[in-house]
Amino acid sequence: MAMHKKEFNVSSPPHIVTVKGYGSDGTGVALLEDGKVVFVRNAARGDVLEVRLINQRKRSAEAEIINMLTPSPYRIDPDCPVYPQCGGCDFRHITYEEELDLKLQRVNDAIERIGGQTARANEILNTGQTDGYRNKAVFHSDGNSLGFYQAGKHKVIAIDRCLLLKDDLNDALGLLREDSPSGISCLPREDYANETSCSARKRYSGFQVCPAPDGEITLRSGRNGLNPPLEEQLDGLVFQISGFFQVNTGAALLLFRKAREYAALSKNETLIDLYCGVGSLTLFVGRDAGHALGIELDPDAVQAARENAWRNNISHVEFLCVDAAQSIAAAAHPDCIIVDPPRRGLSPGATARIIELSPSRIVYVSCDPATLARDIRRLEGYIVKDITAVDMFPRTANVECCCLLEKVK
User: Fold this and answer.
1) CB 384 within 8 A of CB 404
2) Which pLDDT value is given to residue 3?
3) Same domain, yes or no, for 103 and 65?
4) In this structure, is residue 81 part of a structural domain?
5) Which residues of 113-147 are buried (b: 16+ CB within 10 A; e: fewer)?
6) How far is the CA of 113 from the CAs of 36, 38, 110, 340, 371, in angstroms?
7) Which of 182, 201, 230 delimits the end of a domain?
8) Predicted pLDDT of residue 217
9) Per the structure, how many domains does the chain have?
10) Fewer CB under 10 Å: which end of the chain, C or N?
11) Domain shared by 195 and 217, yes or no
């Protein structure tokens, strides 16, 4: 394995460190001679490195690798020519087995240290597909380069093909680069005057390019040359895609099936799904219930959810356009509540409303183990019965969780 020595400002003396583990963002964690914690990007557990500090704080520091003295047994040669400059991936320098282990450890550390729970996730579900899984991408251009942002910066790194993307999205990237006569182009971003952005999505019904950050202007390529709304299939259900939907369809199916297992609904029970979006989880899990209610603040998503219920001929599910913290009179005593909040987690009002509704079980789907663990601590009267991690984003530091909480009797 090649080992390269970098040139650095000699005013900062080098340090020799051994990487012991990983931080929540996937950076390597080591200790300096004085015991201070140091975070090293693109490091692997077991690396012995010569590093130079680039940002020091009172109790920790960040460092860059100068020289790799002894590579980790978990380290591999990256298979992407723009890694690690491109910020799309975090783990192309370690084995996938090591990546799964560190993600599982991240989940369990958060549940124990932040959530104060003894329950542990014993498995991390994954499809085994580490490349070609993403069905959505946002491309950026600075007038000269078209691709993705550099890690931690707003500098555009030119991309020919991205290993994470489905083929149609890489083809769309090629069309954008060639200024194709199809008319697909990027439009200016308001927040960065010298940059343009566009998003592209691939679903089973076709692909879509939206030459605007908000996705309002769209060009679609559908089946048989038609231009219907994009649709996705999961376990026999068909969903119109309007707004947020999981970017990894295969892993989303694993996640949804686990949520359905945890909910364990019967035809004489009621479900409430907070932050329901286009109703995918509401319909996927709620088809087992006698009645299901989806709650969502975005009116466009609520309309799409109602159309999805009609499309799948599910009549015992309804959707309300209200905030998750508001009173829900239509189902005063739900047996189960599902929550799939944004990365910031539950609002205090939503947490209070869940406790007031007092379901016997809560299924919490989370994209951030830290906010999940915080909310678990806040949900007084409930304990973690089971938790499963899901690798929704292979080769990145992100990890999803599905957690079952039961009311203390």
Assistant:
1) yes
2) 44
3) no
4) no
5) ebbebebebeebbbbeebeebbbbbebbbeeeebb
6) 20, 20, 5, 22, 12
7) 230
8) 32
9) 3
10) C
11) yes
Which secondary-structure segment (H or E) carries 375? Answer: helix 369-378
Q: Indicate the DSSP class of residue 225.
A: G
252 and 113 assigned to the same domain? yes
- Give the residues of the chain that fall short of pLDDT 70: 1-11, 178-197, 199-229, 242-244, 327-332
Per-residue pLDDT at 174? 79
Residue at 307 is within a domain = yes
Three-class DSSP category at 238: strand
Res 207: pLDDT: 53
The token duo for 149 is: 């942002």
Task: Please check whether residue 147 is in contact with residue 164, taking contact to mean a CB–CB distance below 8 angstroms.
Answer: no
pLDDT at res. 232: 82
Last residue of a domain, one of 172, 195, 230: 230
Work out the angle between the directed axes of helices 96-113 and 369-378 (0-180°, nearest 10).
20
CA-nearest of 224, 172, 174, 176 to 200 is 172
> Could you write out the DSSP letters of every residue in 108-147?
HHHHHHTT--------EE--S--SS-B-EEEEEE-SS-EE
Give the strands of the sheet with 291-296, arranged side by side. Answer: 124-125, 382-390, 400-407, 361-366, 336-339, 270-274, 291-296, 317-321
pTM value is 0.87
The 10 Å Cβ neighbour count of residue 10 is 8
Query: Is 210 found in the same domain as 262?
Result: no
Confidence (pLDDT) at 22: 95
Predicted confidence at residue 191, as pLDDT, reads 45
Which residue shows structure tokens 């599902």?
338
- Could you list the residue range(s) of the whole structural domain that residue 221 is in? 136-230
| 390 lies in the same domain as 266 | yes
4 found inside a domain: no
* Distance in angstroms (rounded) separating the CA atoms of residues 331 and 292: 9
Same domain for 257 and 301? yes
Q: Quick one: 336 and 357 in the same domain?
A: yes
Q: How far apart are CA 317 and CA 140, in angstroms?
A: 39
Which pLDDT score, from 0 to 100, does residue 328 have? 59
Residues 216 and 284 in one domain: no
CA atoms of 89 and 395, how far apart (whole Å): 6
pLDDT for res 146: 83
The answer to whether position 120 is within a domain reads: yes
